[in-house]
What does this fold into?
Amino acid sequence: MLNRKIQRLFRNNLGTLFLLSTTVTFLGCANRPEPLSEHQKPNNQQSFKAPLSAAVAKHKQYKATPAEMGRDAEVNGNLSEAARWYTEAAKDNDTEAQVALGDLYFKGKGVRQNYQEALKWYTLAASQNNAAAQINIAEMYLNGNGVAQAPKKAETYFILAADQGSSYAKSRLGMMYFNGQTTPKDSEKGINLLSEAAQAGEINAAYKLGDIYRLGLEVKVDTAQAIRWYRIAAEQGDARAEHAIGSLLFSGSSGVTKNQSEAIEWFLRAGQKGLADAQNSLGVAYTEGDGVAANLTEAVKWYDAAAQQNHAMAQTNLATMYRYGLGVPRDFVKAYKWYAVANKRFSTADIGMQVAIETSIQTLVESMNPSQIQQATNQVADWLDTH
It folds into this structure.
């Protein structure tokens, strides 16, 4: 735990000590951690991309089919050759080859990107009940890739795939219903579909449900239920869910016993995966000695890791460490840089933070010479140009 003198010093300058990122963003927000791939396929289609056996790849036991030749070429990075073989197989009505060829046109790999050509091949496969193709068409209409956005058409294709048992399609449908991307909005139906998908192991559905119950979105806040869903995602290595569980345990709340030591373990799991929110949370824990022995050098390490990812709160905290020489040599130039960079990251909704940071910068400038100020402003410009 920092001594009282340092605590007073921080509170006098930023109004609070260090800022812990505990708010979990949910899917559908602009600042969400990593989004679902526009081109993700259901699990039962993934095996199509598996490498051929050596016997098949080398054609030792039998003559490979065009689809197999295409798959082998794709695995080996020969995408133009893969497109040629997939085209031959697709024209022969091989649905998996049609999907694979559509993928190449969608991504512009091995062929010139052409959404209409991708849609053509997906449609042929979808008409033969290929769930992956149905999902890809739904995503195109939902996101407006080469077609006018049409949520209703997206819903139709997601339903076709969901009726074949695709948990991914159920997850996407659930999110559409819950977020009101269909008319009328049906949050209850959305939660039911998300629950089915989550119980089948769909990570994003489980995480979304955790947010719903944690934040009380269309339901009563139920922290215990939130942790239950977060755990399903966390058990599959989802860093967002790991941080969410850690945040609930760190602060404690109704239905959850405060356990900062266990929270640190969850933060570490997520932080080691590169999640900036978790890295900032670890920095705060090591700064204040909550759930772990205080270690300012370790705190700086985690703040810096998150700051490099443009995490505004971590950048602010890192600036404070440099300003007062906590865990690092005192450095007004670096303190100025990180305060200024963070100030660019906070939105107008964070006016309180912006004012506090600007005040800190003004105070720093009073202790800096013209050369230091120029050096700091150059570093800020360089960072903004490259990030």
Notes: The chain is about 65% helix and 0% strand. The first helix runs from residue 4 to 14.
